[in-house]
Every structure is written in structure tokens, then in C-alpha cells.
Amino acid sequence: MNDNIIGITLGIRFSRSFRLLDITGNIVDNILYSELSPFGKEFFPKIQELPSREKTLYNPSTTNYLRINSDDIILGISINQDFESKYDWIKTSILKYYKEVLFKNYQIINIHRIGIIFTYKIPKSKVPTSSIALLTNNSIKDAENINISFSRKIASSTALIRKNVQDYMNTIYTYEELVESMVASLDYQYYYDPIIEDLRDCAPEKVLCDAGEFLKSNYYPLLEKHAKDK
Amino acid sequence: MQKINRNSYEGKNWLEKEVYRQFLASKIKFEKTEPDPVDPKRTNESAFNFEDDEKDLPTSKKSIRLKIIDFFSNNWTVTIIGGIIVVMVTTTAFAYISIAVQQGIQSKEIDNIEANYKEMENKNSQTQNTINTIKEDFFVFKIGAQKDIDYIKKRLRL
């Protein structure tokens, strides 16, 4: 299943900060030119700023990108048969840079959640079309451009034990139909309740490890079943 | 903002566990990690929606371990000078204590020597008394013996 993965997206949601929009230039400089940065200007040769003042660093040839806005920092990494090495790179180098430089030096605080999306390109199947037919009582049997999303909450082991903790995981499953294939994605999110002031207290590496375990034990069987049913 | 200690080891009671279970079973509006895909060509993004501002949420404050690490990394000059002062004060205190202890030990040894000297003086005095007694006894014995010898000599002449 690792061969079908086409992208990983890591998003960290924090308390809305308008101050951050004023210092995104400093942050971009650090990402592009700092010796501590795992990226560099070759990694993100282009930059875009939207009217909302969101800044997006991106690479048109690899389609890797990094978005910085008042609520999130979202990193998108494309995968080409190198899932394990890229995932390890995110878990070690990128999270270390986030924790020790980006979030610490620029005072990005109050973390709400860490989310990781695994995106797969899978063969087209009749299951979504038949699901729509079932949903519409067979009145629509040839639906096109199907896009299905659903979510499921999971208890956090910490929240089951500790009095002041109400953390939980949310998993969002998405199936989107393309012309010749389908894109399936698993969005694994860890919500902190209460929110945590400092990213270094969030144990983000553990979240990514748990997400990887969940992917292999819960999501791969779904994709394998889908491949058999196509 | 309400501050909550996440690291407390206090456990949930059954009621709190039930509330948590009910929360997990409840329906909430999900929000994707990346709500809208990135589009490098997009230029018509609208400005912020201020109505969607977040509520005042409970927060878990920074852990003590990180506070200490950050303090030392942000105040390294103070840390170095403070460290030197701490080392100097500690060394002085240890030296003072060590000298005081050494002085105590030496005073004790001097006291012991003095006590031994007095004891030896006493013993010497006792020995002198014994010798004097022996001398007196020997003198009495000598006089007695001389008398006996004189008596025996007289008897022999008769």
C-alpha cells in the first residue's frame, strides 16, 4: 500500500494570532535561509501571498508547499515511492525544527491540534456509485464526481486516565472520484483539550507514530478490501 | 484564560469517564486538517471572517521543565554569572565547613593529649608513693634485721 501513497500533509492548528501575520516575513526568511531549517530556498523556490495575508511557499516541480496563516502551519509533501524515508524525515528533522526554532522563537503558542493526512491514489471502483444509488433509493444510479467524507472519533488513552485531560483523536475518511481513478485520504487528527501552550509539550512525534500505526492497522485493510472489490 | 494542569496524576471518576464517553459518542462538526487545497494561482481569497473568532478556551500552561530550559537558554549571561557565583559560594561554604570540622577534630586530639598527660602524671605520682613506701618498709626491715644480727652476735660471744 505504501506504493500508492502520493502525499503527506502535516497541519498544526494553534490559537488565532494576528501578530503572526506581521512576522511571516521573518518566518519565511528563517525557513529559506537559516542553517537550522530543513528546507532552504531550493526546496521552496516560489512564494505566494494571498489577500488574507496567508503566505505559501511552494515548489512547482515537486508540488511541495508550506502554508502559514493566522491559524495553521500546513506542510504538504509529495511522495514518490519514498514514503518511509519522507515520513521519518518529517518525524525527526521537521518536527525538531518546528519545536526548537519555528514555534519557540516566533512564539507560536496554544496548540489545538496536530493533523496528518495520508493521500492515496487508488483504482476506480463501483462502490461509491452503488453507495450513492443506495443513498438515493436507486433514483441516481450513475452519479459522477463523487466526493464522500465521514469522520470517527477515538478516545485518547491519556484522556481515559487523567482527570483534567479530554484529548481525543478524530479520523476523517475521504473518497474523491477522478476521471480514471480515485483519491482516498485518511486525515488523522489529535485534538488537545485543554489546548497546550508549547508545542514541545505536545509530543508531536508520538502523534505521528500513532498515526502511522493507525494507518497500517486500520486504514490499509480498507484500501486492500477496496482493491479486491474494484 | 483558565489555566489547567494537564500533568496532574489525579484520575477521572466514573462520572467524568461517562461524560467523556458521551462526548466521544456525540456528533460534532469535523474540520479537516487542510480545509481547502493549496492553489498557487489563487488570487481572489477573501479577507478574514471576524465572526468566526474563537472562544476563550482552557489552556494547559507550559511545563516547568520547559520553563527552566527556556529561562537558561534565554538568560545565558545571567546563567553563567549566576553559575560562577553559585560555585564560589558553594566552594566557600564547603571550605568553611571543612576548616571548622578540621579545627574540631584537632581540638579534640589536643584535649585527648592533655588528658593522657594528666593521667600519666597521676600514675607517676602513684609510682613514686609506692617506691617511698617500699623504701620505708625496707628501712624498717633493715633496722629489724640489724637488731637481730646484733642479738645473735652477743649470744655467740657469751
Overview of this protein structure:
The complex is a heterodimer of chains A (230) and B (158). Chain A contains six helices and nine strands; from the N terminus they run E-H-H-E-E-E-E-H-E-H-E-H-E-E-H. By secondary structure, chain A is an alpha+beta fold. Chain A folds into two domains: 8-109, TATA-Binding Protein (2-Layer Sandwich), CATH 3.30.310; 121-230, no CATH class. Chain A is globular, with a radius of gyration of 19 Å. Chain B is mostly helical and 158 residues long. Chain B is 66% helix and 3% strand. Chain B is built from three helices and two strands. In chain B, strands 1-2 form a two-stranded parallel sheet. Residues 46-51 of chain B have low confidence and may be disordered. At the A-B interface, strand 1, strand 5, strand 6, strand 7 and helix 5 of A face helix 1 and strand 2 of B.
Describe, in short, the structure shown:
Chain A is an alpha+beta fold and 230 residues long. Chain A has helices at residues 18-22, 24-33, 83-105, 127-135, 157-161, 204-229; strands at 5-14, 46-49, 55-58, 65-68, 72-78, 111-123, 147-155, 168-177, 181-196.
Write the layout of secondary structure elements.
The complex is a heterodimer of chains A (230) and B (158).
Chain A: E1 5-14, H1 18-22, H2 24-33, E2 46-49, E3 55-58, E4 65-68, E5 72-78, H3 83-105, E6 111-123, H4 127-135, E7 147-155, H5 157-161, E8 168-177, E9 181-196, H6 204-229
Chain B: E1 3-4, H1 14-25, E2 59-60, H2 64-74, H3 76-157
Parallel strand pairs in B: 1-2
Distance between the termini of chain A: 15 Å
What radius of gyration of chain B results from the CA coordinates? 50 Å
* Total strand segments of chain A: 9
* Number of helical regions of chain A: 6
Compressed to H and E, one letter per element, the order of chain B equals: EHEHH
Query: Which sequence of strands runs across the widest sheet of chain A?
Result: 2-3-4-5-1-6-9-8-7
> What is the number of beta strands of chain B?
2
User: What portion of the residues of chain B fall into strands of 2 or more residues?
Assistant: under 5%
**What value does the average pLDDT of chain B take?**
85
- Secondary-structure content class of chain A: alpha+beta
Q: Mean pLDDT of chain A, as a whole number?
A: 92
Spell the H/E element sequence of chain A: EHHEEEEHEHEHEEH
Estimated radius of gyration of chain A: 19 Å
Shape of chain B: rod-shaped
Residue share in helix of chain B: 55-70%
- The figure for the number of domains of chain A is 2
Content-based structural category of chain B: mainly alpha
The termini of chain B sit apart by: 137 Å
